[in-house]
Amino acid sequence: MQLPHPSAYTHTSSPLGQITLAAAGQKLVGVWFEDQTHRPDLSCSEQAPKHPVLQQAAGQLAQYFVGQRSHFDLPLDLSTGTAFQQLVWQALLTIARGQTCSYQALSAAIGRPAAVRAVGGAVARNPLSIIVPCHRVIGAHGALTGYAGGLGRKTALLQLEGAL
Q1: 53 with 14: CB under 8 angstroms?
Q2: Which of 16, 119, 134, 160 is catalytic?
Q3: Is 44 a catalytic residue?
């Protein structure tokens, strides 16, 4: 994944480890755990802890982790993905807190029932972890499978939201 240029980033702490936040202009473009797969190279981005969108995102994430926020109200930019990835990421936004959805059901919801593997790949490359709730997608029969931030974090996020 390539971040838009110019972009800014900062780090924030969470109960599940350090999180990197990235913004382009006045929109949030990335939320990644410190050891998450599919993280972009931030070497061409400016570290900007005072960026208003990054501060807003850090504040809302802090509220989320202590149970004071059930949804996020942030300006998002999902344009870093392909058209298919963006379709999947938009569908993720419809999965309510406390709910889960299988990869198969997500594939059907976007009108591509045979694209389960491609949907899985798009979910794995979601650039806005937690905010765009890819952790709410589970395997067949309720199995907790795949999460770029690690299955332990996926379990913790689902427990926090009351989905487990």
Answers
A1: no
A2: 134
A3: no
Cβ pair 10, 58 in contact under 8 A: yes
Number of domains the chain contains: 2
Give the residue numbers spanning the domain of 56. 8-65
Residues 41 and 100 in one domain: no
Residues in the chain: 164
Tens-place pLDDT, residues 126-145 = 999 999 999 999 998 888 88
Please report, for the domain that includes residue 35, its CATH number. 3.30.160
Contacts of 62 (CB under 8 A, 6+ apart): 12, 14
Measured CA to CA, the distance from residue 107 to residue 116 in angstroms comes to 6
The per-residue pLDDT for range 74-96, each reduced to its tens digit, is: 999 999 999 999 999 999 999 99
Assess contact for 52 and 152: CB atoms under 8 A.
Answer: no
The answer on 16 and 47 residing in a single domain is yes
